[in-house]
Amino acid sequence: MQRAFLMCAMLGGLLLAPEAEAARRAASNRSTRNASLSLSNRAAARASQWVGLPSLKRVSHAVNDDCSGLVNLAYRKRNLNLLPERTLPGEGGVSAIYRKALSLNALHGQPRPGDLVFFRETYDRNRDGRRNDGLTHIGVVEHVAPDGTVTFVHRAGGGVKRSRMNLHQPGLRRDAKGRVLNDYLRRSERRATHPRLAGELFAGFATVDGRWLTSP
Q: Alpha carbon of 81 to those of 125, 126, 216: distances in Å?
């Protein structure tokens, strides 16, 4: 009788093992998603608080007072660094962050609050009068409206600003009701045919989650 009981217990354990493992993995995945959501929400909330500030120096002197400094400050957390371990010669902060996002498979096309948002050719970085500067600007997604209009926070000329972008109509400044769909990200030039709106200069989104964390 005792032997039969032990055999049943062992068999029951073997049958339950896959279910237990599946439950453990599900709990781990939920924990990772919750941690990512918390991290993103915190970054979006932080960036929102800084809108209107003329300089990031009002918040911290530990980062550059520019667009990459804002996202680094929004995601400031122990063991988390948006920049790769090494930057390439001549590489700007925006390109370096994008390269790390690419290496982590964190780039995507559907925005969520807290995501990083990248733009290209927002200014003449190398001052040669040509549009060959690549990735030049970055911000933090604050809100995504039902019509697809993305509100993002970024450090631009004049301070920390809130701007809009609509990828469904990237070349349209306002809709029929006069609502702004895309804000200007590049100053006016002689050749007005060049893209200047946020939707036209958009380069990608990236989610910051546990993949970005380093070992303590």
A: 24, 26, 12
At 191, list the tokens.
């050749």
Q: For residues 57 and 65, is the Cβ–Cβ distance under 8 A? A: yes
Could you tell me which residues come within 8 angstroms of residue 148 by beta carbon, excluding any fewer than 6 positions away?
Answer: 166, 167, 168
Higher-confidence residue of 31 and 76: namely 76
- pLDDT single digits (tens) 179-210: 999 999 998 877 667 899 999 999 999 999 99
| Residues 183, 176: Cα–Cα separation, whole Å | 16
pLDDT in tens, 25-50: 544 444 445 555 689 999 999 999 99
Cβ contact 129:31 at 8 Å = no
- For residue 185, give every residue at least 6 positions away whose Cβ sits within 8 Å of its Cβ, in sequence order, or none: 119, 122, 137, 156, 163, 196, 197, 198, 201
